[in-house]
């Protein structure tokens, strides 16, 4: 069983604050790391997929970094807005054979207006 | 494309009854996944198919659960007999190609309640 952990489990921030959270994953047999955004009562939607150590991806005010050697990825949100409120999931894909994606349990973000 | 389609959206049934959940993946996607979401365990992969063939069913909880994909555009997840602990949201997802790097597109989910 692969250990994909996200922290914190939940957080509340004020509108306009910047925030970040962490995804930890096995540093061996790395293949890819995904970030998904999951709004309440909807289904997860892809934000980023990263494959190379040192990768940085950006989409508007949201960005992510990847460190495969130490097994972590950060997701940053700059100037949080109420519409950013969602659960952010990371998903780890290992190498070798048929790859299986393992999801973390998510970080639930609430942005307070 | 309409995206991944799941039916029903909500299902309420009594313990012991058979439940069948349905999924239509995005056309052209070769991979199909069934997930279960619970408060305790988050999003768990139950089974996935590649070109209609089950590849990994190690996440299927027990023999009461079965999944089929008779063709490229349809899959079912069946629970027989259902139990209250099966209550959860079940998601179907599909992806185009390489499992590791390709984005998975999720359906809206089926909320199952077993009384």
Could you explain how this protein is built, in words?
The complex is a heterodimer of chains A (113) and B (115). With 113 residues, chain A is mainly beta. Chain A is 0% helix and 56% strand. Chain A has no helices and 11 strands. Chain A has strands spanning 5-7, 10-14, 19-24, 30-38, 45-50, 56-59, 62-67, 72-77, 86-94, 101-103, 107-112. In chain A, strands 2, 4, 5, 9, 10 and 11 form a 6-stranded mixed beta sheet that branches. In chain A, a hairpin with a 4-residue loop joins strand 7 (62-67) and strand 8 (72-77). Chain A is globular and about 45 Å long. The relative contact order of chain A is 0.34. The model of chain A has no long low-confidence stretch (mean pLDDT 92). With 115 residues, chain B is mostly beta strands. Chain B contains no helices and 11 strands. In chain B, the strands form 2 sheets. In chain B, strands 2, 4, 5, 6, 9, 10 and 11 form a 7-stranded mixed beta sheet that branches. In chain B, strands 1-3-8-7 form a 4-stranded antiparallel beta sheet, with no helix packed on it. In chain B, a hairpin with a 2-residue loop joins strand 5 (42-50) and strand 6. The N and C termini of chain B lie far apart (36 Å). The mean pLDDT of chain B is 93.
Key descriptive features of the protein:
heterodimer, A: 113 residues, mainly beta, 0% helix, 56% strand, globular, B: 115 residues, seven-stranded mixed sheet, four-stranded antiparallel sheet, 54% strand
Brief write-up:
Chain A is an all-beta fold. In chain A, 0% of the residues lie in helices and 56% in strands. Chain A has no helices and eleven strands.
Oligomeric nature of the chains: heterodimer
Largest interface, Cβ cutoff 8 Å: A-B, 23 and 23 residues
The tally of helices of chain B reads: 0
The strand count of chain B comes to 11
Nearest-angstrom radius of gyration of chain A? 14 Å
- Kindly report how far apart the N and C termini of chain B lie: 36 Å
β-strand percent of chain A reads over 45%
Question: Would you tell me the structural class of the helices and strands of chain B?
Answer: mainly beta
- SSE pattern of chain B: EEEEEEEEEEE
Helix percentage range of chain B: under 10%
Computed CA radius of gyration of chain B, to the nearest angstrom: 13 Å
Note the gap between the termini of chain A.
39 Å
Principal-axis shape of chain A equals: globular
Structural class of chain A: mainly beta
Helix content of chain A: under 10%
Outline type of chain B:
globular
DSSP strand content of chain B: over 45%
Helix and strand succession of chain A? Answer: EEEEEEEEEEE
| Low-confidence region ranges of chain A | none
